[in-house]
Amino acid sequence: MKASLNLLEKFFSSCDQRNWGYSSSQISAAEEKLSISFPKILKQYYNRFGTCPYITQDGNNIPVPLALEDFFIPGSLYNAPYTPKELDFLVFSSISNVSAIDYGIRLSELSLEDPPIYLCDYGNSSWILENSSLLNFLVTATFWQIAYESKLDYHIDIDPYNYNSQECPDLNYYLNHLGMNGYELENLCKTGYYRIFLKDDVILACETDEWVVPEEPSEDIVWLSIASNNKEKIQAIQKIPNLPWTNNNL
């Protein structure tokens, strides 16, 4: 399944989205402040979802989009004493409460319709490729965040570290029982190991054993959550026989 902003709109179709974005004038002011033009996709995302209540500045080792007014271009003291040689990036997303990681777009690539995304991790003096597509990064990071941080109204989880009654089933076991094979969201991330499945208005988000792209990920679950704003669907999933869960909020 290809990432698109329409996927987010469809998923949140039952929500009032009227105040979920920055105005065109606010976006133009931010561009003027930095003396640059943002990529079309970035402007569309912030116009439609930039102030979405399911997207916050707090995350547990998860990319979180910055508020529009907090976009910046690194200065000469950035990431000191590990200041990268390259500083010509627009930083628009960050992980700050666990590990200091910023995500940016090369200034020379801002004119591209869907530019690649790079990350800079404190302790490293270089930017590395994170995702070959800005659109894919924005959509997958949003779905991952709202599932991992339990931002939706209803969710049930499996945590193998607290699972003692029997051997923890693998990812395929859950996909087969839930009929979610074939519903995986394409993830072009070059450094991550999370997988996202979308069916109707239900998210299955799963972290598997760490893997190095382009190697195939393990099916062994490190963490898995089913989340939705539809209580009835989560309750129905919870009642499926032989589908164990560790925690739930119902």
Overview of this structure, please?
This protein is an alpha+beta fold and 250 residues long. 24% of the residues lie in helices and 21% in strands. It is built from 6 helices and 10 strands. It has helices at residues 5-11, 24-34, 40-49, 134-148, 171-178, 231-238, and strands at 64-65, 89-95, 101-106, 117-121, 128-131, 154-158, 194-199, 202-208, 221-228, 247-248. It has a 5-stranded antiparallel β-sheet with strand order 1-2-3-4-5, covered by helices on one side. Strands 7-8-9-6-10 form a 5-stranded antiparallel β-sheet, sandwiched between helices. Strand 2 (89-95) and strand 3 form a beta hairpin. It is globular, with a radius of gyration of 19 Å. The two termini are 29 Å apart.
In short:
The chain is 24% helix and 21% strand. The protein is an alpha+beta fold.
Strand order, main sheet: write it out: 1-2-3-4-5
Mean pLDDT: 87
Strand proportion? 15-25%
**How would you spell out the order of helices and strands?**
HHHEEEEEHEHEEEHE
- Please bin the fraction of helical residues: 10-25%
Note the gap between the termini: 29 Å
Q: Indicate the overall shape.
A: globular
Number of contiguous helices: 6
Computed over alpha carbons, the radius of gyration is 19 Å
- Structural class label: alpha+beta
| Major sheet characteristics | 5 strands, antiparallel
Count the E strands.
10
Poorly predicted regions are none
Oligomer class:
single chain
